[in-house]
Amino acid sequence: TSSAKSSYELVTLTTWLLKQEQAGVIDNEMTIVLASISTACKQIAALVLRAPISNLTGVQGAVNVQGEDQKKLDVISNEVFSNCLKSSGRTGVIASEEEDVPVAVEQSYSGNYIVVFDPLDGSSNIDAAVSTGSIFGIYAPNDECLADIEDNGTLDSVEQRCVVSVCQPGSNLLAAGYCMYSSSVIFVLTVGTGVYVFTLDPMYGEFVLTQEKVQIPKAGKIYAFNEGNYALWDDKLKQYMDSLKEPGDSGKPYSARYIGSLVGDFHRTLLYGGIYGYPRDKKSKNGKLRLLYECAPMSFIVEQAGGKGSDGHQRILDITPTEIHQRVPLYIGSVEEVEKVEKFLA
Ligand code: AHG
Ligand code: MN
Ligand code: MN
Ligand code: MN
Questions:
Q1: Whether the predicted pLDDT of 222 surpasses 90
Q2: Which of 119, 114, 87, 89 is nearest to 103 (CA)?
């Protein structure tokens, strides 16, 4: 009798999630939330792919709480994410780059997970069809924190409850991931047991497992910074940046790669090694990137891959947000590269 295993076993995200649930790594509610997020990402991928045809490039004509001119797809992606999460029935509160305040989800009837997300990252690239992405993180409800605040009765409004629920350090994340809308549509996910990469097969609309337990190289001579801000940087950072241009003992300087989408620059860094940085500068005292739904989820992923996420002095995952859209400086990527910039900044 042939004992050959069927060599054609393709693992889809759906089957991978069910395996994690059967193994007790995630519970039923988390499985449903993650499936609904992957559905949102597939819908956004389809919208992004045909944006110029369906008149979905360009601006919405509104400004978000960050003071950014919202693209049409910023707003639509936010609605797609919110609708998928609400209809999952397992989400209690959502916080988004495109929502002023966290939103309590009435329809949730179990699980009550907290989901934070950047529905369209790198959205300035949309009109030129350069890679963009979506970023998400999932927390358990922050009940103990809510309970002791309620004890001394300072928590009156639903909105305050939501803010407390959402403002957790990245070290509390149960799951984090992103979807990159690029030459392939790539879904990257960790539930705390390593980093898994799935590629969308448009033939049947499923994410197929293409890499497991990704490990970021310990070092890499690729740096992704917006050097247009060089004049505004601290002197120590300028010295770091200048040092990357000297041909080291290998005789070759670093290469610069920067596409203006954190998801795209991060994914290349995860696979090839190197560093992505968005430092503070004289104009932006805390840098540009948002802790809750950009820096923390990416730092959870990079640590799961053996890399490092820092604000230049401390671990991103140790920072507890005090407000939803709080910005922090970010240095993320290969351990040796992040430690190198931390040394210059000490
Ligand atoms: P978003 O489009 O979600 O607002 O994020 C954009 C971020 C990040 O994706 C990217 O790396 C960075 O902004 C680019 O900023 P600069 O254009 O200032 O370099
Ligand atoms: Mn934005
Ligand atoms: Mn973003
Ligand atoms: Mn965004």
A1: yes
A2: 114
